[in-house]
Amino acid sequence: MTVSTEDQTMRFTAPALLAFFAFTFFITWSVLGGYLYFPEQAAATFGEISGGHPLYFLATWAPGIAGIVLALAFGGLRGLRAFFSRLLLWRCAPVWWLFILVGIPLVFMAGSLIKGGPLFAPVPPEGVGAMVSLMFMMLFLGPVEELGWRGVAQPLLQRHVAPFWAAVIIGAVWGFWHLPAFFLAGVVFADWNILPFFIGNITLAILVTPIFNSARGSLLLPMLFHWQLINPFWPDAQPWDTWLLVGVAAIIVWWKRDMMFSREGAVTEVIPGEVRS
Questions:
Q1: What is the pTM of this model?
Q2: Helix runs in the chain, H state only
């Protein structure tokens, strides 16, 4: 059922934000919790968990699923179409496109060189074609999360706090949400250190925030930003990529401090065209 724009505005408040977080955690932690607490039964029923397992995709897509469900529940089909129209927003300051396409790869390369690694990830025995296939598969994995984090949580939080603090909250929740994956064998997180990753999540949420607001609530740019973070062509640079990104974030926050610490100009619409009282 399609509701009025006024109703959309009334409903997309704090309870909607709490519903988004609750739904997101319920999906992910239910899936991964099954493998943590009942590993033999889960493996026998669904197969061993891995980065390519359908249930791992479901767990990863949880924020996106929650975002879509809320947009549909509170805006109807018309609201959902308007929500997805944010995927078409691409205009923003050119510096942000440059940062996504060039800056992020340079951070990974620099971090890898610091730890004595290569400029690019090693090509697997299957060849470059396998890496290209994985790169496109990644487009439909982590970036889908942005339909929730930036699609719903960011604009709702920016109705109440400045963009910087909205980013810190989302980054902390984002990091905590990943926690079960660190205890699962067969997924990439099993070999990572939790603390740098948690700090990295907050840092990344801060970095994507001025991009999101500059592009007037675009979902496309945050998804491309997220895609670059998991691009298989970039080398493993942990933990140096995290510390380098912390430095970049500090510079950007200082440079864009008027935008980051003021709610003026911050995107607050989940569904474009919402009437705000």
A1: 0.91
A2: 5-11, 14-37, 39-46, 54-84, 94-98, 104-114, 128-139, 146-148, 154-157, 163-177, 194-214, 220-229, 240-255, 257-260
